[in-house]
Design goal:
The structure is a homodimer. By secondary structure, the first copy, chain A, is mainly alpha-helical. Chain A folds into two domains: about 5-70, Multidrug-efflux Transporter Regulator, Chain: A, Domain 2; about 85-125. Chain A has six helices and two strands, in the order H-H-E-E-H-H-H-H. The first copy, chain A, has helices at about 5-10, 15-20, 40-55, 60-70, 75-110, 120-125; strands at about 30, 35-40. A two-stranded antiparallel sheet of chain A has the order 1-2. In chain A, a hairpin with a 5-residue loop joins strand 1 and strand 2 (about 35-40). In chain A, helix 1 (about 5-10) crosses helix 3 (about 40-55) and helix 3 (about 40-55) packs across helix 4. The structure holds a DNA duplex.
Amino acid sequence: MNIGQASEASGVSAKMIRYYEEIGLIAPPARTGNNYRVYATDQVHVLRFIKRARSLGFSLEETETLLKLWQDKSRTSAAVKDVAPTHINDLERRIAEMQGMVKTLKTLAHCCGGDHRPDCPILDDLAGDGTVSGENQPHIHRA
Amino acid sequence: MNIGQASEASGVSAKMIRYYEEIGLIAPPARTGNNYRVYATDQVHVLRFIKRARSLGFSLEETETLLKLWQDKSRTSAAVKDVAPTHINDLERRIAEMQGMVKTLKTLAHCCGGDHRPDCPILDDLAGDGTVSGENQPHIHRA
DNA sequence: CTTGACCTTCCCATGATGGGAAGGCCTACA
DNA sequence: TGTAGGCCTTCCCATCATGGGAAGGTCAAG
């Protein structure tokens, strides 16, 4: 199976497959005489595993941990379970941050008349000291 | 006021102030004879405006729009109000995505015994076809 | 034999931010 | 006057995950 077919079968772009190989996330595959990468079904499973972990919001680093645990036959499920809460906490923190932003924005948009007066509470708030209701803590990682 | 003081007063790092200048988000300030940037109070207000917009999750591009509206004396508040809902929708979509991830992870972590058996529903789910309850749509921007 | 669809490597871009080097300037203190 | 240190300047590099695209090799169908 060439990289294009592996990409098709796994849903991971060829570009990303090569990148994952480059950073050592996946093993370098065999090559044909013409230097083409050849993938077996096993490798496609690995790629799908990676894709799914990414879709659940795990970083590539976290994904690598999960992948090793998956491939380590002597793994314990406890070790895996430890990874989830950390990630859940991280997600919930970011969700709360964003909900704060939404609340502030809704408040401001609601107050903003939407007419042609040049006074706008949204801009006034952005310019001001930031004590409008619905305030959220900064410390954004630009979610 | 030097860049360090402007940074202190606005909460924007000197590095970022220079960057904002470089990309044209803020105007190049005056320079002293020794080539130091000099900022007036007005510029600090602009920096604080930017900082607050960023803390509400607006991208620099969106922030530029808001900034122009703020500085445009003939602006209408309607024009500003139009910017908020788009951003709110975007935020809410990302929140929903992340909540889906959390739900899936919680379900999986709950099922996972946490003992020493090598069977773990989290890994099994990651490896599988992804039809576990709490499923969310991919299309992640790695929130 | 040509055409087009693959594959290869290599470089560059994104967005927002930080790190750090190399060098200039200024102030305080001995 | 010398020096130490704390600012400032520009310039380059790194992050994270991904995509774009160029230049060139290979292969299969017509």
